[in-house]
Amino acid sequence: MSGDHHDPHPPDPQRPDPGPPLASAGLHLSLIVASVIAVFPVLWVLLTSLKPAKYASTTDFFKETTFENYTNLLSDTPFLTWFGNSLLVAGLTTVVGVFISATTGYAVSRFRFPGKRGLMWTLLITQMFPVAVLIVPIYNIMSTMGLLNEPLGLVITYLTIAVPFCAWMMKGFFDTIPREIDESGYVDGLTPFGTFWRLILPLAKPGIAVTAFYSFITAWGEVAYASAFMVGDENMTLAGGLQKFVNQYGAQWGPMSAASVLIAIPAALVFLFAQRHLVTGMSAGAVKG
Amino acid sequence: MAVDTPSQSVAKAAGDVVARGPRRGTGSRRAPKRSLATHWYAWAMVAPVVIVIAVIIGYPLVRGLYLSLTDANERNVARTIGVNEIPATYEFVGLDNYTDALTGSQFLGTLGWTVVWTVSCVTLTFALGLVLANVLNRRIAGRSVYRMLLILPWAIPGFVSVFAWRFLYDERRGMLNQILSGLGMDAVPWLNDPLMAKFSVIAVNVWLGVPFMMVALLGGLQSIPGELYEAAEMDGANAWQRFRNITLPGLRSVSTTVVLLSTIWTFNMFPVIFLLTRGGPGEATQILVTQAYKFSFEISPRDFAQSSTWGVLILVLLMIFAAFYQRVLRKQGDVW
């Protein structure tokens, strides 16, 4: 799995030619259809957010373009509070998760030690854990510790997802760093910790950034724990808050669409920038085991 | 499980020289067991994760297992009301919850739909991802633009996209039905008819999942050496034969990984079901995870014991699946 699939002018002979013009037109047609399906729901929300709320359900692409949904959202709803809560929870989860699991990713990538196999399996299996296994006991523990409805409680909960994931993914990235570098460190008299800290970590920065980004996004978009643990407008995260706009009694698509755009834009931009490395890290870790 | 099982792993993982090849050779030769002196730094490096996993995953897991053997619910667990601490009064009931779940129709019915949901989602996602990856792997104008557009559903936080779909699906005022009525057709109850709702949730999940498949498979395609295709072409292999005999085998290792991941994710896909239909109409789209969630957070009194039981059963099912999957792969010669 090489990371580079983004070459705009591929002169290499690797890829098969599109063939005769008719086939090429067919390819373009199918790609266009697929792209429209991929983009339309997102685009539609964006367009809706720019219409006055009362026209949210019209089929016109543009209608009296206005930013009133955004101004209403920011002034009349606790959106900014939710945004802040999400930022805090996801940020803390990411920092703590990456910090805790970096050395493990390295150790599992480089060393053989008793317990390694068990640890690898644990990391893999914990990623299989359905939310349903842990949510009740964690809920009860948080409840007795008074951490329900507290950002800290949610951070601790999210670490159950982030830590195994980060360790697993960082192993994949460390695997791509040649081990000659480690050996040169040992030759120069560095301890394994020194090698990790001074030589490997700086090289692994892109991988760490991607891991961090991915665990941020996972926490940013988590729904189940957030809906169960955080109640009351003040403490909700975005995933819980958005549900307030759309419930069984009706839907406020105007503020909803504006909120969606504001949540999605930063995530999407960074994502498009980082995604090339994502799959590499994930499947490298999994394939090489 | 979550807690490291030392005896087993020590037996399996033979101590070996530091800083060797990346592959954890399955048939590694057994070196004499090294002492703490050799391994202390490796252990020190993994210690934070082991401790954190033991405390925040291992302990709740054990408690969850225990709860599944009791009759715990909202009214009899330990709780704090104001300053009063009320101790737990639930009782140990053995395997009753498991017998109830496995003999009653609700669990098996939900399991049936969960399997249908998982298989259809993974199959469709994989097929579409494979097709798109193959198309994008050709020299075609605007490749990077298409790729960017096709990846978009992955880039948007899932819960936001799900709400976007709910907006499109809205029965009276949603875009889809307005288009249909513009064409003179009847409105479709996208999320309000049991069968239709099933198609709708699958469609959304496939929409969400295709970009990941596509990118992963595209990476796999690009790691297949071009010479293989040239050689095959010279030998007179047609496009289908090349696809069948070069592309598919070349994609094996990537495919097995993404199919496993995707199956696990889909089986546990909480947000799509929860935010689109809440498992409705009725319980038509309820998968195991959302139903377990419902037991502990949406019914009254909250039934923690049953919820834990379902959670444990889901975990067991997934582990059986993963073990089985691995065994099949190994039989076919994959070292994993």
Automatic annotation (TrEMBL), chain A:
Keyword field: Cell membrane, Membrane, Sugar transport, Transmembrane, Transmembrane helix, Transport
Stretches with biased composition (Basic and acidic residues): 1-15
PROSITE patterns: ABC_TM1
GO biological process, one term: maltodextrin transmembrane transport
Any GO CC annotation of this UniProt entry: plasma membrane
InterPro entries: BP-dep_ABC_trans_perm, MetI-like, MetI-like_sf
Domain spans labelled ABC transmembrane type-1: 83-274
Lipid bilayer topology: Multi-pass membrane protein
Transmembrane segments annotated in the record for this chain: 25-47, 82-107, 119-139, 151-170, 208-231, 251-274
Major localization listed first in the record, in broad terms: membrane
Entries under SUPFAM superfamilies matching the protein: MetI-like
Positions of region (Disordered): 1-20
Location relative to the cell: Cell membrane
GO molecular function: ABC-type maltose transporter activity
A Pfam family matched in the record: BPD_transp_1
Family membership: Belongs to the binding-protein-dependent transport system permease family. MalFG subfamily.
Protein name: ABC transporter permease
Source species: Streptomyces termitum
UniProtKB/TrEMBL annotation, chain B:
Membrane topology qualifier: Multi-pass membrane protein
Comp. bias regions, Polar residues: 1-10
Coiled-coil intervals, chain numbering: none
Sequence intervals crossing the membrane: 40-62, 115-136, 148-168, 199-221, 254-276, 304-325
Subcellular location: Cell membrane
Keyword Transport listed: yes
Matching Pfam families: BPD_transp_1 (PF00528)
Entry-linked InterPro entries: MetI-like, MetI-like_sf, UgpAE/MalFG_permease
Alphabetical UniProt keywords: Cell membrane, Membrane, Transmembrane, Transmembrane helix, Transport
Domain of life: Bacteria
Region Disordered, annotated ranges: 1-31
Chief place where the protein resides: membrane
GO CC aspect terms: plasma membrane
Domain ABC transmembrane type-1: 111-325
Bias type Basic residues, positions: 21-31
GO biological process, one term: transmembrane transport
PANTHER family: ARABINOOLIGOSACCHARIDES TRANSPORT SYSTEM PERMEASE PROTEIN ARAP, BLL4140 PROTEIN
Recorded family membership: Belongs to the binding-protein-dependent transport system permease family.
Protein name according to UniProt: ABC transporter permease
Organism: Streptomyces termitum
